[in-house]
Amino acid sequence: MKGYWIATYSEIKDPERMKKYADKAKEAVLKHSGKILARSANNIALEGREMVRIALAEFPDVETAKKCYDSEEYVEARTYLKDNVIREHMIFEGME
Question: According to the CATH classification, is domain 3-93 in 3.30.70.100?
Answer without folding.
Answer: yes
